Amino acid sequence: MRAQFVLSEIGVGLRRNLTMTVAVIVSVALSLSLFGASLLMRDQVSTMKGYWYDKVNVSIFFCNKNDSANGGQCAKGAATQQQRDDIKAELSNLPIVQSVTYESSDQAYKHYKEQFGGTPVAGLVTPDQLPDSFRVKLKDPTKFKVIKSAFSERPGVQEVQDQRDTVEPLFNLLNGMNIAALCVMGLMLVVALMLIVNTVRVSAFSRRRETGIMRLVGASSFYIQMPFILEAAIAGLLGAAFACVLIVGGKYLLVNNWLAKKIQVINFIGWDSVVAVLPLVLLIGLLMPALAAFFALRKYLKV
């Protein structure tokens, strides 16, 4: 009998405040979809970093005969074979180095032609202008500074370059987008909480006579608060379910059917990451409105 009464009160409350309930559902759905998207974007950035950092190398470029006119470290002319052999031997003995590959200026020019063959700049460079180099594969790419400090000042070395610098701006952009999504999510979450609190207060005020009678006949505070808390929880759960639909739809339509076909060089996250996020979204959608309603009712249900 008590459960039937609570359910009937929930139905009455939802019907009386239908417009505000719909607003709560929409705001919760938008905020939690942004929350889920930000978590997935964080996983995507981590996946991309692991993929690309595993492929990038540290490049040690040697001086060539055209660099002597520029002064600096290459003022003494092109690097000698002895200098290259000494550096390779030292690199091979370092525990952080996985492999060392030599690339001649002719090979560098071939790669340059492959990359820029169809552009106007293809004819601006000749093989003798490109330096030969060592492509150093590190066991831990974050140890780049060890290589740079050890070899950047060595005779015959023009420059030590970390190829992570070419992909770092992309990761910074994605991290910035993630922060922006979290900020918008926080704003929408505040709006959702305000709507939940106002909806609960309006519902409690409109039923203050009934709650007063229930208090006089000995009903406990928890029993009186239960219909209001469950109303907020149901609205939040519906919003969270809608957010899950948006997240799954975004993964299927935006990522799988568009981005994955347009940008094939990126290893996108799988469905396992999405499935791991959905329960958290549902849990937050259920608990957040219920707790907001609980604290909002303490004042308005005092008789």
What does this entry show, briefly?
The chain has 303 residues and is α+β, with helices and mostly antiparallel strands. The protein has 9 helices and 4 strands.
Overall description:
Helix content is about 70%, strand content about 10%. The chain is an alpha+beta fold. Strands 2-3-1-4 form a 4-stranded antiparallel β-sheet. The model has no long low-confidence stretch (mean pLDDT about 80).
Summarize the biggest pleated sheet.
4 strands, antiparallel
**Structural class of the helices, strands and pairings?**
alpha+beta
For the terminal residues, how far apart are their CA atoms?
24 Å
What is the strand content?
Answer: 5-15%
Helix amount, in percent? 55-70%
List low-pLDDT spans. Answer: none
Overall mean pLDDT score? 78
**Overall radius of gyration:** 31 Å
Q: List how many beta strands DSSP finds.
A: 4
Task: Strand order, main sheet: write it out.
Answer: 2-3-1-4
Shape: elongated
The count of helical stretches stands at 9
SSE series = HHEHEHEHEHHHH
